[in-house]
Amino acid sequence: MSAPPLARLADRDEDYVRLGLQRDRIEPWEDGMRTSGGPGSYEWWYFDSHLEDGSSLVVTFYTKWLLKPKGPEAPMVQVDLDRPGKPTQHLFVHATPEEFRASKEGCDVRVKDCYFRGNLQTYEVKVVDDSLTVEATLVGQVPSWRQATGVTYFGAHDEHTFAWLPTVPQGKVTVTISKRGAAPETLTGIGYHDHNWGDVAMSKLLNHWYWGRAQAGPYSVIAAYLYAEKAYGHTELPQIMIAKNGQVVADRASKVRLVLEDVFTDPKSKKPVANRVVYEYGADERVRYRVTFQRRETLLDERFADTVTGFKRALARLAHIDGAYLRFSGLVMVEKYEDGKLVEQASDPGIWELMYLGHVE
């Protein structure tokens, strides 16, 4: 008899009871604060959007920097704004624990004068800084979703947790960007919101992952493929949701196979990067789907060792900390096959990422 996997999606009846969740319903409290904020835990609320002029906007509210979960709360907001033909603009708003508030009843997070709030259907995000103010409204087009309970357990006795809740898999976005000395600019587009949390440094649990979301014609897609660390058997942990016209048509993790094509070594991070990330769903069934993320541009290429300075940076390099985060944009294509024949095809721009927490195996 083979040994049980050391990492697993929490999808058993007892897991739902343990977590206080329903199989067929997501409740507002699930998007509220799910950790204590104390040592060992981390949590973030994430929003991204692809806008009508080709811009992309990503906003993340953190209880603490995800690489430092052992410490106390250190609230932070990060904004990454990409405009066509211009360098990426990064904005960070740091706060003290006293300047942070988050409800456990629903998504209502405040960091200084910035807020992220919503009710599973409509969300408002505002980031205020001396040089830039960003305001966004997101209205869901696809219902909140999670892969089973949204929780992955690690360890023979479920000792540790990594959780992911895509609260708005796809929605309409209105964004207003106000820069000092310039008139406000309002853009519309398609957006997404999810929520992550855990109880131990992700680098102890996960080696790397691909994650992406997109709209392609009538289809909405969110897909992730996680690889556990060596201590947890390098377990592969797929997650996927494909919806058509707002209704989920495919979301069984066990039906997913990941194919990485045209792989090269990124010159900055030294990580293997696939120009094409392909999720094949239902290969042994009459109806199957193929979702392809075709890279056009690398929006962000950040080595973790470069995020610290001075003596800490030298220590990071001595400790062989070589983690990296890369964000890409390009074309996402959804293909539907019936009895081996291509019957539907749609494509549109999308955003996806590669997070490398551990060493390349």
Structure keywords:
AttH-like fold; 9-stranded antiparallel sheet
Spans of at least 5 consecutive residues with low confidence: 308-320
- Strands, count: 22
**Cα-atom Rg, whole angstroms?**
20 Å
The first-to-last residue Cα distance is 27 Å
Give me the CATH superfamily of the largest domain: AttH-like domain
Helix-strand makeup class: mainly beta
What number of structural domains do the residues give?
A: 2
Q: What is the highest CATH level, the class of the largest domain?
A: Mainly Beta
Query: In percent terms, what proportion of residues is strand?
Result: over 45%
Helix content: under 10%
SSE topology string: EHEEEEEEEEEEEEHEEEEEEEHEE
Note the main sheet: 13 strands, antiparallel
Known CATH architecture of the largest domain: Beta Barrel
Overall mean pLDDT: 91
What does this entry look like structurally?
The chain has 361 residues and is mainly β. The chain folds into two domains: 1-21 and 37-200, AttH-like fold (Beta Barrel), CATH 2.40.370; 201-361, AttH-like fold. It is built from three helices and 22 strands. The protein has helices spanning 13-19, 202-205, 310-318; strands at 7-9, 42-51, 56-62, 76-82, 89-94, 100-102, 107-111, 114-118, 122-128, 132-140, 151-154, 160-179, 185-198, 206-216, 219-228, 236-244, 247-250, 256-265, 272-281, 287-303, 324-338, 341-356. Strands 1, 2, 3, 4, 5, 6, 7, 8, 9, 10, 11, 12 and 13 form a 13-stranded antiparallel beta sheet that branches. A hairpin with a 4-residue loop joins β2 (42-51) and β3. It is globular, with a radius of gyration of 20 Å. The two termini are 27 Å apart. Mean pLDDT is 91; it is low at 308-320.
